[in-house]
Design a protein that fits this description.
Elements lengths: L63 E6 L9 H8 L7 H13 L6 H18 L6 E5 L6 H10 L4 E6 L6 H18 L6 E4 L7 H20 L7 E8 L3 H5 L12 H18 L4 E7 L14 H6 L6 E5 L8 H4 L1 H12 L3 E4 L7 H16 L41
Function: Involved in coproporphyrin-dependent heme b biosynthesis. Catalyzes the insertion of ferrous iron into coproporphyrin III to form Fe-coproporphyrin III.
Protein name: Coproporphyrin III ferrochelatase
Subcellular location: Cytoplasm
Length: about 425
């Protein structure tokens, strides 16, 4: 591995600030408290966000950026320990975890997500440099090495005191936003940095045109392929798909703004993004929002319909274009649940099928992430921020009670008004 430079140099180790201290299978323990600066409403926040504004209009010079990923196993021996990290606190026995483990074992025990984040890390650094933003980027995962606490330890050792975090998730829900905030609190406590480091987060970026552009291009290409294969426009169905979540969690997503909307803010944000993509790419084609990757017990209601059920119920269609709208890269839920299972379901039904690429390191997406950094450095007003949907731009500081998970009980979190 390469050595790590001090902040401002722009380069870190191969794992972006992570210097391994030996193989480790367990993520940081759950935090028991969070640090509050005197008089602050938002814990472990920079002065720009301590009072909890919906959108920060105060310019602020951050020391570094924290790219936060989900993490994934990189070998067969990693699979079960990784899944234990993902499901910690839920009491799920290894026998049940093995039911999911075979997805990873099918691919040699290696999830592509870490390599995708390495590619994103390199692209983000290059684009920041092009934009004249001289900030180092550290990378830490929630559930596998490089872990968040190790990335924060390295950042602090390099002299970093204020960080702007970019989660690799675009939407509001417990698993796609609040849990990141909880894991940052866990990592700060584990590393003993609660009174040393401040971490803000960029807004949820589902409505940023740079996030949507790769999907616009993908839908156009997918529909064109279907038409070229002899399917009429009226025979094509576009299925925007995202990770299903419990309906109780969905109801608490979106800061209470969508309490009367089925699927809460989580569904509303996806529907708004899909509507914009359709308007730009294929306004004449039928479409729907579907869900995938359900993992809860049958007795627990989750968002529906499942993509396989939806494919099975199609009438008058001969072609399906699958759009992984809820994902930023081709990780396991895309490779297995879509490229394997959903594709097999469509093929068995005699349907022509294609799957649209995820944003990955598409220049427009990487540019969007840099723009999210720039708007916070500049203190750009919400009215001047890039936004392409009927919802947004979303909040810089999470609102009270947004995306909580009552089943798991209250857990300390940062980057929001309610810890």
């Amino acid at each position: 591995m390469n050595s790590t430079d001090a902040p401002g140099g722009g380069s870190t180790s191969t794992a972006a600030g992570y210097r391994p201290t030996g193989r480790r299978e367990t993520k940081p323990a759950a935090a028991t408290s969070v640090h509050f600066a005197p008089g602050a409403r938002v814990p472990n926040a920079t002065p720009a966000t301590q009072d909890g504004p919906e959108h920060t209009t105060e310019p602020f010079a951050y020391d570094a950026i924290l790219l936060s990923g989900f993490g994934g196993p990189e070998g067969q021996d990693d699979v079960l320990p990784f899944l234990r990290n993902v499901t910690r606190g839920r009491g799920i026995p290894d026998e049940r975890l093995e039911e999911v483990a075979h997805h990873y074992r099918h691919f040699g025990g290696v999830s592509p997500i870490n390599d995708h984040n390495r590619e994103l890390l390199a692209a983000l650094r290059a684009r920041l440099q092009e934009a004249g933003i001289d900030l180092p980027v550290y990378w830490g995962n929630r559930n596998w090495a490089p872990y968040l606490d190790e990335a924060l330890e390295q950042a602090a050792a390099d002299g970093v005191r204020t960080m702007l975090a970019i989660p690799t998730s675009a939407y509001s829900s417990y698993s796609s936003c609040r849990q990141y905030r909880e894991d940052w609190a866990d990592a700060l406590e584990s590393a003993g940095l609660q009174q040393t480091l401040s971490i803000d987060k960029v807004r949820q970026f589902f409505s940023h045109p740079g996030f949507l552009q790769p999907f616009v291009e993908g839908v156009r290409a997918g529909v064109a392929q279907a038409l070229a294969a002899g399917h009429g426009a009226e025979q094509v169905e576009i299925m925007f798909t995202t990770h299903s979540i419990p309906t109780a969690d969905a109801a608490l997503s979106g800061a209470g703004l969508f309490a009367d909307t089925e699927g809460g803010g989580y569904a509303a944000q996806h529907l708004a993004a899909a509507a914009e993509i359709i308007e730009q790419a294929a306004p004449e084609i039928s479409w729907q929002l579907v869900y995938q990757s359900r993992s809860g017990p049958p007795s627990q209601p989750w968002l529906e319909p499942d993509i396989n059920d939806a494919i099975g119920e199609l009438e008058g269609r001969s072609a399906v274009v699958i759009v992984p709208l809820g994902f930023v890269s081709d990780h396991m839920e895309v490779m297995w649940d879509l490229d394997e299972e959903a594709t097999e379901t469509a093929t068995e039904r005699g349907l022509w099928v294609t799957r649209v690429p995820t944003p990955g390191v598409h220049p427009a997406f990487v540019g969007a992430l840099v723009d999210l950094v720039q708007e916070r450095i500049e203190g750009r007003p919400a009215s001047e921020r890039a936004n392409a949907t009927s919802i947004g731009p979303w909040f810089d500081v999470c609102r009270p009670g947004c995306c909580e998970n009552p089943r798991l009980g209250f857990k300390p979190a940062i980057a929001g008004l309610q810890p």
